Structures are given as C-alpha cells and as structure tokens.
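I am going through a labmate's work and have reached the protein record below. What it holds is a sequence and that sequence's fold in token form. Please read both lines and tell me whether the tokens look consistent with the sequence. Do not assume that whoever made the record got everything right. Thanks in advance; the entry in question is below.
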Amino acid sequence: MPKNSKVVKRELDDEVIESVKDLLSNEDSADDAFKKSELTVNVQEEKDTDIEEGSEIEDERPAWNSKLQYILAQVGFSVGLGNVWRFPYLCQKNGGGAYLLPYLILLLVIGIPLFFLELSVGQRIRRGSIGVWNYISPKLGGIGFASCVVCFFVALYYNVIIGWSLFYFSQSFQQPLPWDQCPLVKNASHTFVEPECEKSSATTYYWYRDALNISSSISESGGLNWKMTVCLLAAWVMVCLAMIKGIQSSGKIMYFSSLFPYVVLICFLIRVLLLNGSIDGIRHMFTPKLEIMLEPKVWREAATQVFFALGLGFGGVIAFSSYNKRDNNCHFDAVLVSFINFFTSVLATLVVFAVLGFKANVINEKCIAQNSEMIIKFLKMGNISQEIIPHHINLSAVTEEDYHLVYDIIQKVKEEEFPVLHLNSCQIEDELNKAVQGTGLAFIAFTEAMTHFPASPFWSVMFFLMLVNLGLGSMFGTIEGIITPVVDTFKVRKEILTVICCLLAFSIGLIFVQRSGNYFVTMFDDYSATLPLLIVVILENIAVCFVYGIDKFMEDLRDMLGFAPSRYYYYMWKYISPLMLLSLLIASVVNMGLSPPGYNAWIEDKASEEFLSYPTWGMVVCIALIVLAILPVPVVFIVRRCNLIDDSSGNLASVTYKRGRVLKEPVNLEGDDASLIHGKIPSEMSSPNFGKNIYRKQSGSPTLDTAPNGRYGIGYLMADMPDMPESDL
C-alpha cells in the first residue's frame, strides 16, 4: 500500500480510547495527520459482522466461566439473610399460608418484570450501573451513582451481621453451648444467678450482654466492642480476598457459598421433622387467615419483600449480567432466579416454623410441669377440692390433653377465685404467635431452640456457617454493584479499588461495633435503603420505557434473545409496574411518617427492650442517609442539563474501540460528500462500534435505516453526545 494513501492499515490489537466529540470534531479540522489515518472498513457479510461485533467485546470484558457459575452468583446475591429471618416473620404475621398468594401475585407483577429489565440492560450494554444509565440517558446518569451510594450504605452494616455470625460460629465449638444456661455470680457469702439473665433468658442475655455488651441508648457510645471489631475485620478480609479479582475470584467461591445454605436448610428440615412439635409449627404456618389477606398493609409488606428479595436497584444484578455473552437468554435467567428465590424463602420458612414448633413444644412441656406442681400444691393446701379432678388423671405425669381438661374444670369451678391462682393455659399456639424476626430470630429464638437439639454444637456450627455464606453471597453482589460501575467509568485498577473500598468501609463500620452499634444497624437498615431504592427503580423503569423507548427496548430484546419477549412485559413495564412502584413509594412514605422514628433499646435494669425516640442528631443522620442516597440523581441531572462540566475529554463520554475494527453500517447523510471513511459512498459508510451497537435516531435525519443488529437510526449516540445536525459533520 502506498505511503501517502488516504487509508492507512492499522494494527487490529492496538486499543484506542477517544472521546466521541473529539472523533467527530476533528473531521472539520485541518489536521493532516488525522486525514492520513482514517479507519479501515472491514467489508464483510452481515454474518461475519455480527461475529466480529460479539467477539470484540468478549475480548475486552471478563466473562463467566459457565452459565451455572452466573446463575449461582445471581442466586447468591438475591437469596440472603432476609429469606431466613424476614420472610418467615411476614408469613407468620400476615395470615400464614394466605400470605403466599399476594406474594406470588406481586412477584409476577413487580418482581420478575423488573428483574428481567435489569438483567437485560446490563447484558445489552455490558457496563455497570453508572455506564448503563449514563448511556441510556445522560441526564438520568445519577441513577447509577445513587445505586452505588445505596450499595455502600448497605454494605457497611450488612457485613456487621456477618461479623456477628462469625462470632457465634466461633463460640459454637463448645459443649454445652455458652448460651445454654444463665451464668452464676459469686460473692463473699453465696452464689446466685445473674439477675439480668434471670429476668430474661439465657440466650437473650448472651446476645445483649456477652456478644454485644450493649449500651442503654444510642447516645451512650460505650467505646468499641473489641470482640466484634475483630469479627468485623475478619468479615471484610474475607470479602476483599473474594472480590479482589472480580468474578474470576468470587465466581469460584459461589459454588460453595450459594449451594451450602441449601444443604444446611435441608438437613435442618429433616432433623427437625423427627422432633416433637415440629409438625405443630408447620401446621401453624400453613393455616390461612384469609381475613388478614385483604388488608392493604399485607400487600404493602409483600411488595416490599419482593422488591428487596431480588436485590432490585442495587446495581449488583446489572453488574453480574454485564459479564454475560450478548446472546444469553436472560429472560430464562430472570424467571429461574426469581422462583429459586421464592422456593428458598418457603424452604427457610418451613425450617424456621418447624424449629419454632419444636421450641414451643419444649416450653409448653415445662409450662405444664410447673403449673401441674402448682395445682398439686393447691390441692394439698385445700384451695382446690380433690373431687373436681377426674380420677384417671395423674398430675405427677400429666399429658397435655389431661392438663387442659383440668385447667378448664378449675376455671369453671373457681370462676371468681381463678385469677388469684395465676395458672397458665399453656397453649402451643400462644408461643407460636410470638412473632420474631431479624436478629431476634437468628441470635435468640433459633439459638435457644438449638440448645435442646441432640448434638447441639454441631447444629449451631452448621446454622451460623450457613448465615455467613448467605451473607457473603449477598455481599459479593453488593460490592460488585460498587466496583464494576466505578471501574467501567473511571478505568481504575479493580484490585486497588477493591482494597480501598473494603478499608474505607471497615473504618466507617467501626460505628457499628461500638456498644451502641446495634442501634446504628437498625437506623441504617430502616433509612438508608428503603426509599432511595424505590426511587432508583422507579427512575430505571421511566428511563427504559419513556426515555429510551419501550418499543425500541423490545426490539433490542428481540435481537439479543433471538425471539420476541411476551407482550406481557410490555404492558407491565409501561403501565402496571410504574403505577405499582409509585403506590408502594407513597405507602412507604406514609408509613414512615406515621411510625415514630426510633429504636428498641435494651434496658439492663429491666432486662427488657424499650422503644426510644432518636435524639435530634439521630434524626439528622436519618434524613442525611436518605438525602445522600438520592442526591446524585438531581445533581447529575442539573450538571447535564446546564452543561456545567465539559465531558469532551472525560471518561463518562469515552468509547473504547479497536483500530480497524469498524462494522459495516448502512447510513444516509444527505448532502455530505465528505465522510469519515474515505472511498465509500454515503450508503456504504460505516459507524464506529460502541459496546453492543445500540443505535439512536439523530435529529435532523430525514430517513431511518435499519442497523444490522436490529436497532433503528443512523450513526451512534454516546453518553453525553447531543443530537448533531449534518452541518456539524
């Protein structure tokens, strides 16, 4: 080829990163060097073009080793601690088995469509949350930054829970378990049971005093709890080592962290079903209370649980799917992961209620034994006549049915004096109706039940190891929701960013391992994620359906999947889901306004919880958490709308491509004889390839040509590139 030829062949493996504005504006300049280094068009058939388009991006971005690894990563992210200690509580509180119906309906209306939407945009654009929403609409680019902020807030306190689980895991290698009995206190004269423990219970005392060493209010810091500080450090080291190489390192760990919880849950279920009372717990769970199901509160809580169970809005779903191949069937993935999540919640609920049924049976037996002794004492004292007790009943070894018979007889005969006797009815249902959730379920109720298990240390080790794995799986997706978009946008090294992120999070997370740290966990859990995530997902829905265009998005899906998705999703995304999300947002705001902002503090003298309101500075922190999470959305919108920052040389407007690797694209530029690619007539001109070649119609274009990949439009539109008339070229 002659040296002064207008087209100079360039090396295919040389990667160049240039701003789109620079690329186009330089055409008008008199830069001879630019003129002499035009890009070579690789003229091939459409089939070859598609192969090149896919292979180029595959070379530049890491990919999952297998489909199974990817599914396990998504399952590990979506299936978390909430499935074990939140869903069973909601099921118990909101009508038992009847709660499953509204949950399933809302899973189909909100859960699967929005989960499918996030999977699709991540796989289509192959960027993290910042890059995805910045590409779809630069003015809504703050959605991605807001997702990162929420992910960071959640990661701060979520890893503290993993630290708590690690502490209990380390203490489980003892026989008997350290929370089995109340500790004894010795003084000069005698030995007695610790008063705080005697007033509550052994497991409650161990949680609040031995594990957390909790203070009486959020204002009373009490200094660091060094045991929990070490556990928090260990949790962040585990996350950092697993995430430092991205999906190459975390993907392999997913095989264990995602599958092990199912092994433990199944083992627990089999073991508990062999114990007395477990069937009573399961029967209590599935007994439907249909009248409760019609209450609006039930539907609001079901919608909230669906929303958070799938990890919508965090950016982790988008980040994981961005490492997929372009032709991956993400619709199948969305349905599969959603139903795996649902059935995991049901399995966990079966286990929880079976364990609570066993625990209720043990407590009920103790109750019957204690009250039978009281009845025998009343018989000896003459308070109760022996004649009213049926002759076939032996109060020294009374059954549950016989005790209830005696109780009813005494209640009828001693109607006026009965309250003075202080006898308890000892009903299993009363114990099962005591709804517990969160840390109260995992670290108090469940640990108490396991003390009655044969070989209790083994089951305790398994249970808390399961909690650690459930937490880590969700943490991987949460951290990926921060790392991937930042690396994609600012081109920093993933290893360095991961270490910095984990160190920063550990340093800030020290507020959660103070003696008052549990109250801060409650604060962050209540205020840092709920409203911001709802707003983020609403904006995601609006960006795709009304800014990018729902018809165009459906065309993208048809091209990407190889088949047209059901029109069901079209109507869900465009009409039903936005209305449902707005209703949920309004209901959440109203509920938050009606509920007094506060927390349950542990009062040492009373050995019980007491609701306290947040101090003034606490209210400021609560409001700041919400504002900081949402703030990137209006800030980026104003910056983009008013052009306050020139992005012509910034990373946000950059496009990565390879020299000489430009795809054939039919375009029509009226009256433009000078093309970027010399030697081609306008109809044969090619457009540079960005990502997956998502095309957008440019203003001023009189005609629409169909792109090879099924999108419509001419040229290409980058993150911050405004519509350009032909004269600008």
About this structure: The longest strand covers residues 598-603.
